[in-house]
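User: I'm writing a short report section on ligand binding and want a predicted complex to refer to. Could you take this sequence and guanosine-5'-diphosphate and write out the structure as tokens? A short remark afterwards would be nice.
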Amino acid sequence: MRIKSAEFLVSNSDVSKCPKDLIPEYAFIGRSNVGKSSLINMLTNQKSLAKTSGRPGKTQLINHFKINNEWNLVDLPGYGYARVSKSSKKTFQKFITQYFNHREQLVTAFVLVDVRHLPQPIDLEFMKWMGENGIPFSVVFTKADKLKPNAITKHVEDYKNVMLKTWEEMPNYFVTSSSKFVGKDEVLGYIGELNENMEAQGFLKN
Ligand code: GDP
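Assistant: Sure. The structure tokens for the complex follow:
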């Protein structure tokens, strides 16, 4: 898919205020510093559509961008645990769980993880939560330029092996590097395919 236009639409912290148009939507999420802003900028051919970090205290907002006048890209904030009252039960920030549970336009999410690291508990728990709530997602390994090719293969294999302890199969995944433009065509091609499926089902077109 060629990116012809990418425009910022709106930021808010309430899923009920997100854009109402019924066009396919794709959400990007991951721990802060995982490389989410850089990935969004790479995918959309922009230098600073999504702000890259280095700015502490970034507000926790759901950011909508319209791409090619055809689909929405959503930049979600880094997830963290929110403790539920005095119990030790942990969950994710409410507006993130509300976004995923209520956003009917969402086609799939992309959960970003740093290719250099073994699965972190919070990432595994987040993906488990997504699975339990029936929300489709792909894993996006970021910063692949930081490893040699055979190390990438090994890290991805190790990651898969940990996932397969709880998942029947490894979710769909992509290996990316925003600084080297790796994985761009694959991620955009996948979104393009899903858009076509949506259109075939009569979901698209406002
Ligand atoms: P965010 O907090 O998830 O939005 O992460 P950013 O996109 O702001 O990136 C965090 C840091 O990782 C910044 O210093 C980026 O320059 C760096 N970074 C992001 N993507 C890549 C990548 O593909 N390769 C390398 N080498 N560094 C990256």
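A remark for your report: Strands lie at 6-12, 25-30, 62-67, 71-75, 81-83, 90-92, 106-114, 137-142, 173-175. The chain has five helices and nine strands.
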